[in-house]
Amino acid sequence: MSEAENKMEKIISLCKRRGFVFPGSEIYGGLANSWDYGPLGVELKNNIKNEWWKIFVQQRSDVVGLDAALIMNPKVWEASGHLKGFTDPLVECKKCHGRFRTDQIDIEAACAKCGAEADFTDTKQFNMMFKTNLGPAADSASEVYLRPETAQAMFVDFKLIAETTRKRLPFGIAQIGRSFRNEITPGNFIFRTREFEMMEIEYFVKEADWKNNFEMWRSEMEKWLRHLGVDLANIHFEEVEEKDRAHYSSRTIDIEYDFPFGQDELYGLAYRSDFDLKNHMENSNQDLSYTDPDSGEKVIPHVIEPTWGVDRSMLVALLEAYQEEVAPSADGTEEQRVVLKFPKWLAPIKIAVLPLSKKENLAAVAKPLYEQLTKRFACEYDETQSIGKRYRRQDEIGTPYAVTVDFDTLEDEAVTVRDRDTMKQERIKIDELENYLEERLK
Ligand code: GAP
Q1: Higher pLDDT, 248 or 138
Q2: What total number of domains does the chain contain?
């Protein structure tokens, strides 16, 4: 196993051990490639989504939000081209019936699953949309699809949103939500799953302005990566050739990351032209054009679409934050510590309140302190095991500050604040603690 693969295994194990991510339906033997986000995982994921929403919706006057129904009228998927074009090329090994994506294997080589000499079926186009039925009758008239991308609702609701918000071009609609794809080859932990979350913006522009807005979003995506704590040396902006682009795209840049299993897509940036609005206009017979209030000019807006995967963001945040270090232990020797050096805004728990022992006189100070801090920050109270072990546990889940209440606290009304990254400890008066932490967690 390479060092990178080993790191991935360690992260998967840490995620299970500490409650970030568990295998789905585990008591029933699991369900292939399904994962459940545990107590810390859901906090981490929510921090990503909330920060994204704050930066790209609340702090921008040119982007508004949407939370649309997940199951849409099936005509949407006909108009968008997904019924015809949202496919992956599929082959099957004639011996073991293992299924593969033609673009991911060498069909001249032996089967990667059973090792038999290459003998595959002809390539079939496999549609990745999940089908289900609306209501009790399971007939073709009730067939609907689970959305494979959040984008379509932003096109379908474009007119309503433009009218109700009175936004002028250029402006964007943003949405965070779950999408479903019946992937042929899911895998690599939470990298490729059959249900996942996306954060997407459809940014509507005049055709003449698409290039500068494409560049604007490229630079915004780069800024976001830095904010997430990603070293840009691990990122590659790859221009996607026409033959490899999604059916709706006139230009795509894949933002790829050096994952332990190889360089692969983290985010995408596409120029969807007027493809979607035009198709929805034709199929719905509704006018989805935009009239410039000043010039009276009527246009079908063109669209720049930056897309972020939530689960892949979380995987990359974990990979970038994970460090193994040698640190002094409580008995003066050295030991290894595992630490998740998340940017502070991202850490699922910001402050751990740790009474030195379970003695009641310490709890009498530590508990009210915890109650006070937890009103403003995500906090954890932990009084079990040695203080050294508790520090290690907080390091492993990425908690930036540990506040220790000890016997001196009863005399000097001060606590020890330990910094996750430097491991330096500072004595702070309880009166000043909230401001001290507030300053550092900004
Ligand atoms: N509306 C554009 C769109 O759907 P995409 O590149 O197909 O574009 C967007 O998907 C993002 O969703 C990807 O960049 C990736 O981060 C994430 N993503 C796609 N398929 C995924 C899967 N099977 N599992 C987890 N994340 C996935």
Answers
A1: 248
A2: 2
